[in-house]
Amino acid sequence: MESNNSEYWKKKCEVRESVILDYMTDLANYRILVAQLKAEVEHYKATLREKEHALKNTDKFWKQVLFEDIVKDYHESFEN
């Protein structure tokens, strides 16, 4: 009886160890996935910052062009 009881607990411990190792493997994989997702998010943030900066520069450019057109039209109106 004691031998069977010992075998039972030995098997039960092996199963628990296996489950724990599976959970640890899953946890490691999730951590890797989270790190990859964080890197991807940072990449998208950087891309958005670059596009925002480019948009601001483009906006400044068009404001300057518009201002120059207004000044040019203003001067032309006095010349005529």
Note down, in words, how this protein is organized:
By secondary structure, the chain is mainly α. 98% of the residues lie in helices and 0% in strands. The protein is built from 1 helix and no strands. The chain has one helix at 2-79. The protein is rod-shaped and about 115 Å long. The model has no long low-confidence stretch (mean pLDDT 86).
Compact summary:
The chain has 80 residues and is mostly helical. It has one helix spanning 2-79.
Quick tags:
80 residues, mainly alpha, 1 helix
Number of helices: 1
Structural class: mainly alpha
Assign a percent range to the helix content. over 70%
Uncertain regions spanning at least 5 consecutive residues: none
**Rg over CA atoms:** 34 Å
Secondary structure: elements and pairs:
Blueprint: H1 2-79
